């Protein structure tokens, strides 16, 4: 019988539509702006009474609390307005102190029965959800300087091991100069290190102060180092952003020395800058002995006590680059500490250094590269100059009781938040070169909400125009096409939610384009049915022929568009990818609804019946 589907095909279509409706429903429940309170020490868990006092304190300050809830050692306070999150966090910080961590959050509002099916709403991009945009500049000169200092330290170790005496070391612009007492020592040093450090050109210099050896960083090595610095910083920043738990961040390279970072949903720009741009690292050094030469000693202050200092060896045992994992915890006195695991190389270096220095003090040095801007006069005009500088401070100084392996602890931290930040930075990796913020933009949640409203309005207007056109052009068959179009929109939203795709403004443009393209298949089918009817073909045969003969044209047209969308996704970035994702998914869902769903509706209503005339 013409225009009848077997039962299994109807059931299959019904199941697909039912799944689509279920997984599209969470988008009707947008996430609530919230603040999350977590305990940072044992024995400080919140109870309901204290949580009620905190919510009352927020309401007294004019902040509307939607709901508060306890979950183990943490609490979640949902707010009505996103722009009140920062104010609420500051109030709670004052109320709770260092024993608790208060963080901004977006609380899922999906009903439990949908969450039980793993149904989640679509993620929103920066332009819809609000957030921050950073343009980071990598300090290439500092990258070269750091590499020179590391190589100078390595050369000193080699010379000491081989008992080759040197007087002094000077680091200049791409150069390292070693002073020797005699030409014999200099020549022996050159023969020893030339093969081990091939990235340098070597030149002998003689003067009144003795024989000198100058190592100059080659241009090829500088270029390779700068490229490595940007790529390593890119990886490290990605790791840090992932640790922040930001939904669908964008971290990508721009040009030879810049990195773009976009963090949707982040309102606390100060906290984001502190984590993303921190160039912190650790060095483990031995305390200098009284008879250590002055050129091998560096005096550093303690970070938490400027009046206290210690004399340390310039040579480094191991750096934070060898940290494989780091986590915050508390000692038996509830003081914050960071548990450190070193990689194999770092563990061997630490074991070798501590095994021969039991009873000697070892310091943990915190290093942070920063920049400051000052105004100078050039040619009668004020010009801003950016100056890079480095801060070094001792976190802890402890006696080596026994040989250390790849596991140990760092104590002496001021607060739990400092321990958490330090653990995060070490866990995600150190930056290969300092960076500074060349540009910063903030998109507020109110602007994001306006973009969402305008985007929804554009979809509604596009849908309305298509619906009116189909009704006017194809009458009863237009109703079928419009139902299929609505179901197509539901399936598209469900597919994006299930795949975890991010919706952006270009993505909304892709949805609007999909709505117009989705009815193309129905137009081809219905026009073919009209042609068959004009050729005096019976109504049921005309419907069957319309669907069968238009199928090839529909597939060809959609496959070519799909190929273009795939190419856009593979070579595009950011907004282009967002557009390509919605367009690709829209093509697939529109083919399903226009061909299978619309025919199923026609089959159920008029299929297999004797018809003298059809309204098309």
UniProtKB/TrEMBL annotation:
Membrane topology designation: Multi-pass membrane protein
Transmembrane intervals: 455-472, 479-501, 507-529, 550-572, 578-602
Protein's UniProt keywords contain Transmembrane helix: yes
Major site of localization recorded for this protein: membrane
Molecular function GO terms recorded: protein-transporting ATPase activity
Domain SecD export protein N-terminal TM: 2-104
SecDF P1 head subdomain domain sequence ranges: 300-433
Gene Ontology terms: biological process: intracellular protein transmembrane transport; protein targeting; protein transport by the Sec complex
Family named by the database record: Belongs to the SecD/SecF family. SecD subfamily.
Function text: Part of the Sec protein translocase complex. Interacts with the SecYEG preprotein conducting channel. SecDF uses the proton motive force (PMF) to complete protein translocation after the ATP-dependent function of SecA.
UniProt-recorded name of the protein: Protein translocase subunit SecD
Native source species: Chromohalobacter moromii
Organism phylogeny: Bacteria, Pseudomonadati, Pseudomonadota, Gammaproteobacteria, Oceanospirillales
């Amino acid at each position: 019988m013409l225009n009848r589907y077997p039962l299994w095909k109807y059931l299959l279509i019904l199941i697909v539509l039912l799944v689509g409706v279920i997984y599209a429903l969470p988008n009707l429940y947008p996430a609530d702006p919230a603040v999350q309170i977590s305990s940072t020490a044992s024995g400080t868990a919140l109870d309901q009474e204290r949580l009620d006092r905190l919510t009352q304190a927020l309401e007294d300050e004019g902040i509307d609390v939607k709901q508060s809830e306890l979950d183990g050692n943490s609490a979640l306070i949902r707010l009505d307005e996103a722009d009140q999150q920062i104010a609420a966090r500051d109030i709670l910080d004052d109320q709770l102190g260092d024993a608790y961590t208060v963080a901004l959050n977006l609380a899922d509002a999906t009903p439990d029965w949908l969450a039980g099916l793993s149904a989640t709403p679509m993620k929103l991009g920066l332009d819809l959800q609000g957030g921050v945009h950073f343009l980071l500049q990598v300090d290439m000169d500092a990258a070269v300087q750091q590499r020179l200092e590391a190589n100078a330290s390595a050369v000193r170790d080699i010379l000491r091991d081989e008992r080759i005496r040197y007087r002094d070391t000077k680091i200049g612009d791409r150069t390292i100069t070693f002073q020797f007492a005699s030409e014999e020592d200099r020549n022996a040093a050159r023969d020893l290190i030339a093969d081990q450090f091939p990235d340098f050109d070597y030149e002998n210099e003689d003067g009144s102060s003795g024989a000198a050896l100058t190592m100059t960083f080659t241009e090829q090595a500088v270029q390779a180092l700068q490229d490595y610095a940007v790529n390593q910083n890119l990886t490290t920043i990605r790791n840090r952003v992932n640790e922040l738990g930001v939904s669908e961040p964008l971290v990508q390279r721009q040009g030879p020395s810049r990195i773009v970072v976009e963090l949707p949903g982040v309102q606390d720009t100060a906290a984001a800058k502190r984590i993303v741009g921190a160039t912190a690292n650790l060095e483990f050094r031995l305390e200098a002995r009284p008879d250590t030469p002055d050129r091998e000693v560096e005096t550093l202050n303690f970070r938490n006590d400027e009046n206290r200092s210690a004399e340390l060896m310039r040579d480094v045992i191991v750096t934070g680059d060898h940290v494989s994992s780091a986590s915050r915890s508390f000692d038996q006195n509830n003081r914050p500490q960071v548990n450190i695991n070193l990689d194999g190389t770092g563990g061997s270096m630490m074991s070798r250094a501590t095994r021969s220095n039991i009873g000697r003090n070892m310091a943990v040095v915190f290093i942070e590269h920063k920049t400051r801007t000052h105004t100078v006069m050039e040619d009668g005009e004020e010009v801003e100059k950016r100056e890079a500088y480095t801060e070094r401070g001792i976190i802890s100084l402890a006696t080596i009781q026994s040989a250390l392996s790849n596991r140990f602890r760092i104590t002496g931290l001021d607060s739990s938040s400092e321990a958490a930040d330090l653990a995060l930075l070490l866990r995600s990796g150190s930056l290969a070169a300092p960076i500074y913020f060349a540009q910063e933009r903030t998109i507020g949640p109110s602007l994001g909400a306006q973009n969402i409203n305008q985007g929804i309005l554009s979809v509604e207007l596009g849908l309305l125009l298509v619906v009116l056109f189909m009704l006017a052009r194809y009458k009863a068959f237009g109703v079928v096409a419009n139902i299929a179009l609505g179901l197509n929109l539901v399936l598209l939203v469900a597919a994006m939610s299930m795949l975890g795709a991010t919706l952006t403004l270009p993505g909304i443009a892709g949805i609007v384009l999909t709505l117009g393209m989705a009815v193309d298949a129905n137009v081809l089918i219905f026009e073919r049915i009209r042609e068959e009817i004009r050729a005096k073909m019976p109504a049921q045969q005309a419907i069957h022929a319309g669907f069968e003969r238009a199928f090839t044209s529909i597939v060809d047209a959609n496959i070519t568009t799909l190929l273009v969308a795939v190419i856009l996704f593979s070579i595009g970035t950011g907004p282009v990818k967002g557009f390509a994702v919605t367009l690709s998914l829209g093509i697939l869902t529109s083919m399903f609804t226009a061909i299978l769903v619309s025919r199923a509706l026609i089959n159920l209503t008029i299929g297999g019946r004797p018809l003298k005339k059809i309204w098309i």
